[in-house]
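Problem: given the chain below (123 residues), write out its structure.
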Amino acid sequence: MLFDELAELTGHRNAIDGRIVDIVAEIDGDGLWGSTGCRSISALVAWRTGISPRNAQTVTTVAERLEDFPRCTEALREGRLSLDQVGVVVERRRRGIRRPLRGVGVGGDGDPVADGHQARTPS
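Solution.
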């Protein structure tokens, strides 16, 4: 019972992170962060969300590449993948690494795969 609740809550958290990524992409795309006095979009994200600068950078990196990874970001919005999992895909592709990503819930081409360890999709 606790494991099921943990999986369900994690799916909700993943979906929330997906919405945060969408919001950050819109703020960045519209240039709205410049009027805040923050030095970067990731500094704004860290300040407004209370997350670490490293996690804010992951949010920002994924937000900047939404259109490049539509299946991964959709799975994030649906709660099937975590921000960390999508961040790994985006970062590896940025560096030109194309080997399959085993153990992070996605295939080498960025497709979500059902591996039995993903969070439950929020209902």
